[in-house]
């Protein structure tokens, strides 16, 4: 038996990236994936590698997000070389689109708050400046912001590549596993993960990366991980001639030529369905942004649940009560994939020190009565 066995509970983008990084570091990793019954954000997200909204009021999160975008090109190349899967990374910049002067002014303040160390270049653009770069932009668009570090990927290919890479590094994946109980035997320093039907896995360490399930599992190992669901509906069009060379927060054109339109922000509990009102709102906003979309066919719509903490920032923590038990949760599974693979995974595997300032991501920050939180997406 390996002396560095790790169970990762949760096979979405967060868990898969951490498992991949730990296995690459030499750990014997077992990934327990709930599979298709999971409320998995990984299969329904917008695919953005996005810096433009991460870390306002939380400097360590801003820096964490900034470092993550630097990891992306090496990660994409590494996965392609190892697995043969091209995740369709395009990282040449991205645009946020605004419809009022008030929105633009608020955006400028937020971006200045994020760029506290001068490493994150942003540019506020008026309508004419935006139209010069995005000729198909609509007349009702007032302006926007630009960040040259942003980009997008195919999240389904990314998930596939991480799972394939994990296996090639010796990791095991069990699908259809619904973990309902986790625990520690104390004296032996081993951890267990058990399903409702009695199946059990045991290892030296355990990582809770179960998305919305972390709210239930984390307290069993002395960890605090308050997470709630937030639904986003997304639309996809037929394939179109290339007109959108950069991703935006309203629409992005995929490598195949389809256009992904999004996204809603809805507090509806665990309902990941679609609604006529939501689809109509997204479609109207997309046509206002890019009028040429008014005549295209929509071919699919779906809903997915984001995993949101009270402030929208991640939780990374090792349990003080049960050392060797970790929790990791983030709604930015795409943007932060490189940091999860190159920093969190090796830390948990014991081959790298904890990331600088990781204690600031502990879940106990939400117990401070003097702090107020907003997870505005």
TrEMBL record:
<feature type="domain" description="FAD dependent oxidoreductase">
    <location>
        <begin position="6"/>
        <end position="337"/>
    </location>
</feature>
<dbReference type="GO" id="GO:0005737">
    <property type="term" value="C:cytoplasm"/>
</dbReference>
<dbReference type="InterPro" id="IPR036188">
    <property type="entry name" value="FAD/NAD-bd_sf"/>
</dbReference>
<protein>
    <submittedName>
        <fullName>FAD-dependent oxidoreductase</fullName>
    </submittedName>
</protein>
<keyword id="KW-0560">Oxidoreductase</keyword>
<dbReference type="Pfam" id="PF01266">
    <property type="entry name" value="DAO"/>
</dbReference>
<dbReference type="GO" id="GO:0016491">
    <property type="term" value="F:oxidoreductase activity"/>
</dbReference>
<dbReference type="InterPro" id="IPR006076">
    <property type="entry name" value="FAD-dep_OxRdtase"/>
</dbReference>
């Amino acid at each position: 038996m390996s002396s560095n066995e790790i169970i990762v509970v949760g096979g979405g983008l967060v868990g898969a990236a951490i498992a991949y990084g730990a296995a690459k570091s030499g750990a014997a990793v077992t990934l327990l994936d709930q599979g298709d019954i999971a409320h998995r954000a990984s299969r329904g997200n917008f695919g953005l590698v996005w810096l433009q909204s991460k870390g306002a009021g939380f400097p360590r999160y801003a820096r964490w997000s900034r470092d993550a975008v630097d990891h992306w090109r090496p990660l994409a190349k590494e996965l392609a070389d190892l697995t043969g899967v091209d995740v369709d990374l395009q990282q040449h910049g991205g645009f946020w689109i605004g419809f009022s002067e008030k929105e633009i002014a608020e955006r400028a303040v937020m971006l200045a708050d994020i760029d506290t160390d001068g490493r994150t270049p942003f540019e506020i653009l008026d309508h004419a400046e935006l139209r010069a770069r995005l000729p198909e932009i609509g007349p009702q668009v007032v302006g926007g912001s630009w960040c040259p570090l942003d980009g997008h990927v195919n999240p389904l290919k990314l998930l596939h590549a991480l799972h394939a890479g994990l296996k090639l590094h010796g990791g095991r994946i069990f699908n259809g596993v619904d973990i309902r109980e986790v625990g520690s035997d104390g004296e032996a320093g081993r951890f267990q993960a058990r399903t409702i039907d009695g199946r059990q896995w045991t290892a030296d360490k355990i990582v809770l990366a179960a998305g919305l399930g972390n709210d239930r599992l984390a307290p069993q190992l002395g960890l605090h991980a308050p997470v709630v669901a937030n639904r986003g509906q997304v639309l996809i069009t037929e394939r179109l001639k290339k007109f959108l060379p950069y991703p935006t927060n309203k629409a992005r054109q995929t490598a195949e030529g389809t256009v992904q339109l999004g996204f809603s922000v809805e507090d509806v509990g665990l309902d990941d369905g679609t609604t006529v009102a939501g689809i109509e709102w997204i479609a109207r906003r997309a046509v206002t942004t890019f009028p040429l979309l008014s005549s295209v066919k929509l071919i699919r719509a779906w809903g997915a649940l984001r995993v949101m903490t009270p402030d929208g920032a991640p939780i990374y923590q090792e349990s003080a009560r049960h050392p060797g038990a970790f929790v990791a949760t983030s709604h930015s599974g795409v943007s932060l994939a490189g940091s999860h693979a190159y920093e969190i995974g090796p830390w948990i595997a014991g081959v790298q020190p904890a990331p600088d300032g990781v204690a600031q991501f502990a879940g106990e920050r939400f117990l401070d009565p003097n702090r107020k939180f907003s997870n505005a997406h």
